[in-house]
Structure prediction request, 534 residues.
Amino acid sequence: MKHTLPLPETFSAISNLPLEVSYQQVEQWVARIPPGGAGLAFRSAFWRRWWIGGAGILAIVGVSLICGYYFARDREVPHQTLELLPELPPLNLPPEAPRQAAVVPQTRIPPPLNPVPSDAGIAGVDIRSFLPDPVPDLEKGGFEGFPGEAAPVDPVPLQEPFGRKFPFVEPMAHRDPEAWGLPEGWLTQGCCLAHYETGLTHRFSYEGHHAAYIRSKDSTAKGHVSLVHRIPAGVFAGEKVRLSARIMGYDLTQAAGLTLVAKNKRKTKVLARGRIDWPLPDATGDGWYAISMEWEVPNRAKYLEYGAFLEGGGYVFVDQVYLERVGDTPGQAPCACPGVQGTDFEILP
Amino acid sequence: MHQNPHQAFLHAYEPLHSAFIRYCSTICYGIMDAEDLAHETILITLERYDDIREKEKLLGYMIAVANNVIRNKRRRLKFRGYLDEEAFKRLETKAPGPEVALDIHYLYQALRKLPEKQREAIILFEINGFSIKEISDMQGSSISATKTRLSRGRQKLKSLMEEKVSDRLVEAYITFLFTLTLECL
Prediction:
């Protein structure tokens, strides 16, 4: 036997229940509402739009922050502890070892007429008088050659697309390294390149006749330039390497020193960066410093860039830049084995 | 012609008041107070009263607004549960007797399980006394569709109520046994 509720009776009982809200109550509610708005419902509708808009803005900002975090995490660069050695450990370089240098027309680099002895120091001497004069005006067409010489022909752009880090990328077509006497594979890169100049000079050198230099055309320059040698990481990947050089600074306003950068296959992502600054307080040019840094190259590194850099205004000279694996057996020549890279910027006939 | 929109609204609302409040009382059982639901619905309707094209379908519009409010409220109550006990206490004070109150309570609970359109049609037809033609106008559907809704709604309601009654009988039997045992002891 089925038991069912009396549905019609229940429905009629519901119909006979007293109303929970009277019409007078509704009249009072309506009377309380001002003509321009309807109380909470209006306000909530009004604020709801703002809440939705605010939530949308917050979502956009959050997504941007997350994307920025992941972007910055990929570009995270460990810093190297600064180290200034009193004296560079001797490199066992046999004199008969072949030198890594570019074949440069001798007409590009005038022979040293009156070289300054390297051990004499340059204290009290205006270093600018030793550099090629006039200074090439790079903004008006680039390097025009030394006085009495023709301008370099068919410049090759060597500046890499470095726009992600440096927004102001300038074409380096007028900076053919051969024209400036730099060995093959050496690049100039950085920011505000028009205010800087790189090349070889015969006026200063630690040993031999030439040294590389970076100089700002104006002492108030705010950019940064690095003069680096780019090589495949090869045997250096995953190894501890030592970068050593002789360096001399003059009129520095910010910093100068050595830089060592590991890059990925596309040469766009900096996997790690080692850097050592030249001591700023000693900006009077007392002479050459032996400077060295040791650094672990990441396993993922495909290219290495090592060399010198200059931030702000001033002059920096660098010579005998060598990159070697720590613990290599002595007696290996710079270019005879893959474990040592570098140059002393000497131009071979 | 009423210059004040409030007066115009009240003028159009007055004949619908009873049906609207009964509808609110039925659908909001155990979810929220009928007074709150009516208040919120009236405010929303008044806000958009000028935008309503067919003023003669005001009740249908207000029922749709009330349904939306209830739907939002039920979505929030999903994590808290229904307030059936409080609603039943309030119902007991208004109903003619406790048995009738219990019947109404079970009917409300069964109505809550019906689909929205069926529930709306049943309430409007059985409780408010609207004709099938009026309900089909309010719901924007054909007469045959409204009839089908009513028929299916009644069938489903009956089956739900039978379950409720059998549950009640079992409960009563267990209570009787428990009381008998206590008396014997």
About this structure: The first helix of chain A runs from residue 7 to 16. The mean pLDDT of chain A is 67.
